[in-house]
Structures are given as structure tokens and as C-alpha cells.
Amino acid sequence: MTKSYEFNWQKHLPEFMQEGTSFDRFDEDPYIFEPNCRMKVDEYGFFITWKIEGKEGQVLECSLINSIRVGAIPKDPKILSSFEAVGKTEADLEGCIICICSGTDLVNLSFMFLVAENPDIARKWIEGLRSVIHNFKANNVCPMTCLKKHWMRMCFLTNVNGKIPVRGITRTFASGKTEKGIFQALKDLGLPSGKNDEIEPPDFTFDIFYALTQKICPRTDIEELFKNINGNKTDYLTVDQLVSFLNENQRDPRLNEILFPFYDPKRAMQIIEKYERDEELKKKGRMSSDGFCRYLMSDENAPVFLDRLELYQEMDQPLAHYFISSSHNTYLTGRQFGGKSSVEMYRQVLLSGCRCVELDCWDGKGEDQEPIITHGKAMCTDILFKDVIQAIKETAFVTSDYPVILSFENHCSKLQQYKMAKYCEEIFGDLLLRQPLESYSLEPGRPLPSPSELKKKILIKNKRLKPEVEQRQLESLKKHMEAGETNTPAIIMGEEDDTENAEKEAEEKDLISEAPSLSEATSEKETSSVSQSNAVSSGKDEEQNNGVRKIPDDEVTEISEATDATDISEASDQDNNKKGVDVAEDSEEALIASYQYESATTNIHPYLSAMVNYAQPVKFQGFDVAEERNIYHNMSSFNESVGLGYLKTNAIEFVNYNKRQMSRIYPKGGRVDSSNYMPQIFWNAGCQMVSLNFQTPDLAMQLNQGKFEYNGSCGYLLKPDFMRRSDRTFDPFSETPVDGVIAATCSVQVFSGQFLSDKKIGTYVEVDMYGLPTDTIRKEFRTRMVMNNGLNPAYNEEPFVFRKVILPDLAVLRIAVYDDNNKLIGQRILPLDGLQAGYRHISLRNEGNKPLSLPTVFCQIILKTYVPDGFGAIVDALSDPKKFLTIAEKRADQMKALGIDTNDIADVPSGSSKNDKKGKGKGDTMKVSVTQQASSEMAQTSNSINNNTTETKRGENQLCGRHVTHIHTVCSLSQTAFVAFQIPH
């Protein structure tokens, strides 16, 4: 960064954790019992370490730990007898057990249990460990810090003699024939180098380790860059040479010069003094190639503006003005059909930053009549509603203080609905938002409250009775309770609110057919036995999976009731195929085909209804109807196909709808494998709750996790200005610069990879851009394959140029490395609005967005203002055969850039808005005036730059105001000259 910036990613670590505490440690599966382990946490909070006399040292990486909580007393007789052998009874274990849950994703989890001497020690360690593991900034440390972390791991993994085995070092970097190079490097550094040799820990300093990595993975790419800067005349850089390099390469030319001044000799000297190790060079104001390499690997050269990882956005806007991280069918660990339900998923999803989870509620079996959560009768296992509510209470506000929305799909009888409401009331207590805030009454025209005003509040999203019906039933219920009567009043049991508040529920019908008809997309009520011919519908909120057939109780493995909050046995399986009811592949299609739809109930208990306020689902009747009603707390949901249909025909109206009230998108029912749709197309329209299957770490989830890593990983991201203001019009399919926004050009040149694999494999790098359809470029830019080198492949590609990114605020860059079998090695999602220009090391993540320790990609990123190439765009437009397409047809064609097939787009009512602007709605048969659009492109660029001056002033205190353009190009059909001038800062 141009100004010195301290990336304060370290959390304060209590001394007692660094010094260590004795615990008894056990694992349930496989069984392990280790008494009297001294557990420590290093000063950086990287690892939990422990060592038992006569055994090897062990570590658990904190970045892989998902949750820490009080553990339940084990039920396994073998474990209990082990405690009896060391003099501890079950009573001695009460409140003393710490459960540590870890994994590389949200599903494949491991559990380790520590038993403290007393509950007070357990409580202190739980609090201390939570501050360390929920440190999202630590996932963004620089490559140099990652090297230090890896060195520390090797130092902790000592053998039974307390020494570092050479075998462990070679295993870190190489395998097979490449081990010889490691042995030679160790020998060159004066260290023991035999395969069975050992190294004394004091001899294996970080400086030695760093020198070892430079020998194993020499940075010839940085050496070449170093020589280019100094003209290959000396073995150092002068202050002036460093200043020139920093200003010409490491600084985004669009940056505001006041907020981000140019580098000067004083700043260059600060860099030299910090990173140069040669004292003689430092005194002379010179930098060696080693110092230059250390600088490029430091926090000061992070690929993103590190302050974006803080909570930096304004959080006082209405809820509808934010993207909200949202989960679909949260309880499932795998497939939608025959899968396993797990309480643990709610903990993991909420701790990852998600702020909207889904609960599919059904009447429980047996005498206790406990409400359960499951995927209808789609052969998925059951979990108890009250256990889920308890898990939500424990984890809702651990990593984020901002509101959590519970999306109920309610199939319960009124008796069990009352139980649900009482559980929410009793377990959540003051966390539950029972009544609207005084300043935000539930009246037409009243905006939603902000995330700040709803801090640490849980909102219920469920159908609500008409106010007069709800009031009448509540009064009747109160009279019965005052009279001491235990039965439910007949008025409550019999009266059904069959009104527009009933929201369409139809995901499972998608299991049979994927193309809804017009009548099916708008109808509200369905019977419980729907034929295949009319088995698909649209704007549903809560989804159901039921009615496949009556499943005998002995065919369904129900998860046992877990009265303790930490009964984690349900999440310990590693193989999803074994988690639910076994469904033979050849019979699954037949079962899905026989699936019968059963809608969610519209017969709501008044006690539950009264808990619903700012998230009231209603049937979607059209954008014009929603605009006329002007009820901000009403929201509708759409499966992905119906959502795409409305985007195709009414994109601008969809954006305007999302300025006022919330929408939820969910996967179509045909995704029985729990795959995800591309969320980007719906973010482009301002949809707030783009709900995904969090259990599937696919590309869509990677985009979601990468996007929501910004703003402190709080689960809320403020939408761009033009997607919030009622006086602005935005078309998410625009191919010309958006009014008030400056288009950008982004170039990525991939030079090399570091520590990508310890195997001699081939690797290549893909660089993709996701954003508006016109900004999206997928599967087009990839490097050549470098064979037999997973350590330090040199790609040295020509730059990949994304020439025109018309909306950088919504665009993300994806850099991914694959092996020669096209298997993902690592990936990284980088939102463009926080991307830094220059030579950068991109630290990679696994498919579940967990940081990989060493793998990086070294590349140069160039960012600048987009400048049109004369009249080229106009000429191209005149010859474009798509000029005779309708608006809707063209949009469907544009969606292909995001990998969306036309078969995935549902037909929806064409007259959904009375204000059919710019060829929408009734006008969707209009021909596209491509020539006019192209000729206005450069004029819009001009307007964007002028308008941006005001926008920049408004946002100077936020990072979104950091960009100011320098070049202004004006062009029209009657002008052939370009006028360039400087925009004042």
C-alpha cells in the first residue's frame, strides 16, 4: 500500500494458553484416550499443540477448527471406564469437557475432546480458543507469515526424542525422486541430511528454514523482475529505482491522490529499513534481491486492500439494501433425496458467517409429539426442532452480531406449531424479535430497520395470519389459558387464513418437471396429490420433500434425541452416502417420479404468527402489485428457474423491487445432488437472500464465501449505490457503462506457482471473471500446462486482459490451479472492488475456502480506467446479428456467459409490471436498438466519469470512494476527436 499499513491480524492470547494446561484428551471415533496431556497454543494462535512423554508431538491447526463448545459426557462405556481408571466419575466430568470440532469443510468433521480439572478452567479455555479460531483476518496472512507458520508446525512435530526428523522435512516439500534435492539443500546449510537423521530444534531457526525454501523453490521470477528494474547493472536497487517501481507498478492509477498519495523517497526508505537484511546496503539506502523478495511476500503486498477484511461498510441502511449470506435446506449434510439431517450443520453454517438458515418443520412421530426437521418424506433422516433452536442460540452471534433470519417451512399441525413457538420463546429469550421496533411499524411505506438496529436479534420468517384473524385467535387462546383449560380453542384449530399471505411452495415438484407453465407459476394452492403433468410451480419460499411413499419406521434412521447441546454423534460420519437411508441408484429415479407434492400449511397458530414481523412471505403477484402495495416487510421467494424467468423479462423491475423489499432465491428441486446454481446472476439484480447448499463446496459456494469474506465476514454486504436509490435505474444486462460508475480494464499476467504440490505433476492456472453477463469471462484464459513440477512451475504467460468491466463493484476474479487430471489444487476469489494492482502473491484456498498453508500464485495485476477504442464498438454493433433479437431473447443469450442454460429459465407472466420500461414486459417483443446502444457507450462513459466525482466525495471515508479516473474520453457519431483532461481530486 502507498501508506504504511499495519495488518493487525493477531488476537491477544492469554498467557495461560501459551504456557499450557494439563487435560485428559479423548476421541470417540476411533477411540483414543490420552490422560495428562499438556495443551498449548503458540503466540500467533496458529496451532494447538500437545506432547506426551515418549510420544511424537501433535498439532491441530486453528484455521481448520470450526467450533469450540462445552462437550457432553460421553456415553461410550470404554471411555467412561478409562476415566474411572484415572479416578474420575461421570459427575467429575460435568462442565469440564471441551469439544473441538475441525474439518476442511462444513460436513467432513472431526471431534476432539479435552477434559479440564474443573469447569472454570474449561470455561477460560473455551473463551480463549474462540477468540483465536474465529479470526477471519488470520486467513489472509501474507506468504512470509505462512512460511513461518509452516516452520512452526515442523518444530512442533518432534519425534519421541524431542527432535525434528529430516524425514518430516522432506515429506513437507517433496516425494519420491525429488527428495534428493532436499537432502542436498540441508547439507549445503550445514544441517543433518540423512533420511533417518534428526535436527536439534534450536538449530532449525526460521532464517535457516527460509534459506531452505529458497534453495528448494528458487525465485528466478523475482530475480528476473529485480534485474529489469535496475537494468541488470547492479545487485541492488536504489531508492529512486524503488520509488519508480512502486509508483509505476504497485499503485492503482485510479486511486485518489489525496487518500492514496504517490510513493516518495521517505516511504521507500521505510520499506528498505523494514525488509532489507544486509545492514551495509540498508545504510546506503539500497535493497538487495533478498530484501525485495521479502517485501513482495509481505502483508504490504496483499492482493486485496486488507482493511476490506474489517467491518468497513455502513450498517445503518434498511435490510433490503444488503446482500445477506443465506443457506438452503441447512440441515442436510449431503443429497436432497435420501440424505442425512444434522443439528451440527446449523452450527457450522452460522459460524461461517451465514445469516439466514432454513428449517423444514414437520409433526414428529411417537407419543411425545415433538416437532422435527427433515426434508419432507424424501427419505431423509429427522432431527428435533428444539435441538436445532438450541444450536442456533449457541452459535448465532459468535462470529457476527448482525441479525439472523430463520426461514420456516412449516408443515406442522397447530398443536406442534404452538410447541415450536414456545421453544423459540423459551430458548431464544431476548434474542428473539417478538415485536416490531417502535420506529419501524408494520405499515405500508415504512422501510425495514437496519442490521445495526437489529443487532443480536433473531427474526422468524413464516406465513402470518391476517391481523384481525390473529388478534381474534390470540384473545381466545388467552381466555382458555386464564381459565386453566389445556385444550386448544376450536376457533384456533378450525380457522384457516386462506389469504394472499400464503406463499407458493413447489420445489419438490421440480423433481418431476423443470419447466413450469404460466398457470403453475402463478397459482397458489395445490392438493397433496399432484400429477406429473402439473407438478411444477414457481415463486415458493419454503420447500418440501414429502409424499414419496409411506416409509416404515424401521426404514428411517432417526437421530436420537440429544438433550445436551453437544451431542455430536450425528455429524461424525465421513461418508455422506452412509448418512441417510440407503437409496439404490437404480431405484432413485422411480422414487422421485412417484413423489407426491404436499404444500406447507396456511393454517398458522396465532402464537407463532405473532412472532413474525419484518420477514413476512407472500405470494408473488407481480412487480406492479408489489409496488402499489408498497409493503416493505413483505417478501417473496423464487426458485432459480423462475428467478431467471423474471430476470429475462423484467430485469429492471426486479432490481427496483429489491430496493424496497427482500427476495429469496433457492435451488430448483431437480438438484437432488445438492449442487448449486450460479449466485452471481441474482446478485446482479440485487436479490438479498441468494440461498445455497452450504454442504457442497462447488464453484457457486466458493464465489459466495469469497464475496462475503469482505466487511468483517459479518454476513451482510451493502449493495452498490445504484441498486439502493429509487432515483437510479439499473439494468443488470447492460452492456454499456452504468451511469455514475467508471468501467475498468483488468489484466492478469501469471508468472509462476510456489509449493503447489509435493508431487511431480503437471499444473495449469485458470483466470476467470464473474460479474454482469457482459463482464463475465469463463474458461477462456488458462496458462500452458507445466509438466512434472508441482513445486515451482514457471508459466510466464502473456497477460490475460479483461478489457471492459463495466461494473467493477459486482465483479470478482477467480484464480484457480488444476493438476494434469483437471483436479482442483487450490483457488481464490478476489472481489474486484478491493483488488490491488501490482506484482502480487495470491495465497490459495481449498474448495471449501479454507486457507492452504504454502501454495501461492505469483502474478501481475494491472487495473485502469476503461477507454473505448474509437468507433470499433459501433462498427461491431452494426454488424451484430443479434440486433434483431428481442430484449428477452438477448438476455437469455447473455446468461450463457454465466453458464446458465436456456432450459434452466422458466416461462413467467409477461405482464408483470405496468411500467414496462426499455422493452420489458409487454414490450419484450421490441427489437434491440443495438446501434443506438453502441453509439451511446462512450457518451455514457463520459457521464459516468462526471457523475463519479460527486460519488467519490460522498464515499471518501469509505473504501468504495478510493477510485477517481484520470482520463476522460468523449465520442459521438459526429465527432472524430478525443478530448482528454484531468479530473480534479
TrEMBL record:
<keyword id="KW-0378">Hydrolase</keyword>
<dbReference type="InterPro" id="IPR016280">
    <property type="entry name" value="PLC-beta"/>
</dbReference>
<keyword id="KW-0807">Transducer</keyword>
<feature type="binding site">
    <location>
        <position position="329"/>
    </location>
    <ligand>
        <name>Ca(2+)</name>
    </ligand>
</feature>
<dbReference type="Pfam" id="PF17787">
    <property type="entry name" value="PH_14"/>
</dbReference>
<feature type="region of interest" description="Disordered">
    <location>
        <begin position="477"/>
        <end position="583"/>
    </location>
</feature>
<dbReference type="Pfam" id="PF22631">
    <property type="entry name" value="PLCB1-4-like_EFh"/>
</dbReference>
<feature type="active site">
    <location>
        <position position="375"/>
    </location>
</feature>
<feature type="binding site">
    <location>
        <position position="358"/>
    </location>
    <ligand>
        <name>Ca(2+)</name>
    </ligand>
</feature>
<keyword id="KW-0479">Metal-binding</keyword>
<dbReference type="Pfam" id="PF00388">
    <property type="entry name" value="PI-PLC-X"/>
</dbReference>
<dbReference type="GO" id="GO:0005509">
    <property type="term" value="F:calcium ion binding"/>
</dbReference>
<feature type="compositionally biased region" description="Basic and acidic residues">
    <location>
        <begin position="501"/>
        <end position="512"/>
    </location>
</feature>
<feature type="compositionally biased region" description="Polar residues">
    <location>
        <begin position="928"/>
        <end position="940"/>
    </location>
</feature>
<dbReference type="GO" id="GO:0046488">
    <property type="term" value="P:phosphatidylinositol metabolic process"/>
</dbReference>
<dbReference type="InterPro" id="IPR037862">
    <property type="entry name" value="PLC-beta_PH"/>
</dbReference>
<dbReference type="GO" id="GO:0016042">
    <property type="term" value="P:lipid catabolic process"/>
</dbReference>
<dbReference type="Pfam" id="PF00387">
    <property type="entry name" value="PI-PLC-Y"/>
</dbReference>
<feature type="binding site">
    <location>
        <position position="409"/>
    </location>
    <ligand>
        <name>Ca(2+)</name>
    </ligand>
</feature>
<dbReference type="GO" id="GO:0051209">
    <property type="term" value="P:release of sequestered calcium ion into cytosol"/>
</dbReference>
<dbReference type="Pfam" id="PF00168">
    <property type="entry name" value="C2"/>
</dbReference>
<dbReference type="GO" id="GO:0004435">
    <property type="term" value="F:phosphatidylinositol-4,5-bisphosphate phospholipase C activity"/>
</dbReference>
<dbReference type="InterPro" id="IPR000008">
    <property type="entry name" value="C2_dom"/>
</dbReference>
<feature type="binding site">
    <location>
        <position position="360"/>
    </location>
    <ligand>
        <name>Ca(2+)</name>
    </ligand>
</feature>
<feature type="compositionally biased region" description="Low complexity">
    <location>
        <begin position="941"/>
        <end position="950"/>
    </location>
</feature>
<feature type="domain" description="PI-PLC Y-box">
    <location>
        <begin position="608"/>
        <end position="724"/>
    </location>
</feature>
<dbReference type="GO" id="GO:0120548">
    <property type="term" value="F:phosphatidylinositol phospholipase C activity"/>
</dbReference>
<feature type="domain" description="C2">
    <location>
        <begin position="727"/>
        <end position="852"/>
    </location>
</feature>
<protein>
    <recommendedName>
        <fullName>Phosphoinositide phospholipase C</fullName>
        <ecNumber>3.1.4.11</ecNumber>
    </recommendedName>
</protein>
<dbReference type="InterPro" id="IPR000909">
    <property type="entry name" value="PLipase_C_PInositol-sp_X_dom"/>
</dbReference>
<dbReference type="InterPro" id="IPR011992">
    <property type="entry name" value="EF-hand-dom_pair"/>
</dbReference>
<dbReference type="InterPro" id="IPR017946">
    <property type="entry name" value="PLC-like_Pdiesterase_TIM-brl"/>
</dbReference>
<feature type="compositionally biased region" description="Low complexity">
    <location>
        <begin position="528"/>
        <end position="538"/>
    </location>
</feature>
<dbReference type="GO" id="GO:0048015">
    <property type="term" value="P:phosphatidylinositol-mediated signaling"/>
</dbReference>
<feature type="compositionally biased region" description="Basic and acidic residues">
    <location>
        <begin position="914"/>
        <end position="925"/>
    </location>
</feature>
<dbReference type="InterPro" id="IPR001192">
    <property type="entry name" value="PI-PLC_fam"/>
</dbReference>
<feature type="active site">
    <location>
        <position position="328"/>
    </location>
</feature>
<dbReference type="InterPro" id="IPR001711">
    <property type="entry name" value="PLipase_C_Pinositol-sp_Y"/>
</dbReference>
<keyword id="KW-0443">Lipid metabolism</keyword>
<keyword id="KW-0106">Calcium</keyword>
<dbReference type="InterPro" id="IPR035892">
    <property type="entry name" value="C2_domain_sf"/>
</dbReference>
<feature type="region of interest" description="Disordered">
    <location>
        <begin position="906"/>
        <end position="953"/>
    </location>
</feature>
